Amino acid sequence: MMDLGRLRALHAVAVHGSVGAAATSLGFTPSAVSQQISKLERETRTVLLERRGRGVVLTDAAQALAATARQVLALVEQAEVSLEEQRGRAAGRLVVAAFATAARGLLPGALAELRVRCPDLDVRLLETDPYQAAEMVARGEVDLAVVQDWENTPLPVPDGLAREDFGTDPVDLVLPAGHPLAAAAVVGTADLRGRRWISVPPGNICHDWLVRTMREAGEEPDVVHQVGEFETQIALVAAGLGVGLVPRLGRGPLPPGVVARPVRPEPVRRVFALWRQQASRRPAITAALAAVRDHWPTRGAAPEPGTGRTAGTGRTADALRPGAVPAAAPAPDPVPGNGGTGRAPAASD
Fold it and tell me: What is the DSSP letter of 326?
């Protein structure tokens, strides 16, 4: 009988395209993954990897075995879900992926409470961009993802995933206190034209949203500084190097000399969770969703400009309960600068 761990290693190489990337996804060293594949070759008396240049490729036999391994791993997950459901308590390991501001502004309290509620549950957090997170859930690399998208930049959701919406996260224009727009109580979309922008790099969903938003306003945005973290963007704004559109989730107090102004129509991010439909009955999934849901109103978002009220305190009306599978969102049109993939090379806010 073939070893499950070795099949998992082969499946990871097939999914990620290299031993090194597979090792990263599994939390092993490349040497350990190579050893697992070598043992599987001896076990099956079949050549599974062939050297090509500096890398390796799967043989035809390995491709067929990897496809079977995916089915086997899915059945194993179903068995684990069934056993956990029968025990009636959340247990085992739960890997959660989240975008940076959710990891900073929403999940610390939720995961701390989850640890108290479910002491037998081993929760691991991975910070990554929503594009990667959705695909990682579909591939079985993570169990649950907290992601975000925008009305004009929907996140492509792979088939077989279920979804629950938590709410919306408003976005403000952040600019130097001496900027002409700082005197306005509210900034209109037309006022955003002709600005020097500080934004996340191309390929990130927030960058794609900014490009589409400014195109809808009749202008290609002039992005003069590209940085991955909103805190760094705010530091560049403080230095007078441009303006930025920064969400409130996870945003701390602004430094001296920087102000935030609401924009009308109000841009908002939609924050939601994704998980594999076949795991909907797993107590660990339902417990994690409940913890995040309970912490959404008090997630530590920045106050609305001029009000002192915390933004995004309500859940959306169309939130789906565990077990529901929504239609996959359409993939956004390619945005120049990201190779038409809509994928980000690294995690960011």
Answer: P
Q: Which residue, 38, 36, 39, 16, is CA-closest to 28?
A: 36
Phi, psi (5° rounding) for residue 166?
-100, -35
How far the first Cα of the chain sits from its last, in Å, is 45
Whole-angstrom distance, CA of residue 111 vs CA of residue 89:
16
Query: Containing H/E element for 258?
Result: strand 258-264
Looking at this protein, which amino acid is placed at residue 82? S
Phi, psi of 300 (to 5 degrees): 85, 25
Q: By the 8 A CB rule, do 13 and 19 touch?
A: yes
Phi and psi at residue 95, to the nearest 5°: -100, 125
- What's the confidence (pLDDT) of residue 300? 38
Report mean pLDDT in 10-residue bins for the chain, 349 residues: 85 85 84 89 88 84 87 77 69 92 94 94 94 91 94 92 95 95 93 94 89 90 93 95 93 94 93 93 93 74 44 35 39 40 41
Q: At which residue do the structure tokens 């994928």 appear?
A: 343
pLDDT value of residue 278: 87
Tokens in use for 313? 């305190």
Contact, 135 vs 25, CB < 8 A? no
Amino acid 339: pLDDT: 39
Q: How far apart are CA 72 and CA 6, in angstroms?
A: 12
Please choose, from the candidates 330, 312, 328, 323, the residue with its C-alpha nearest in 3D space to the C-alpha of residue 164. Answer: 323
- Tokens encoding 96: 């959660």
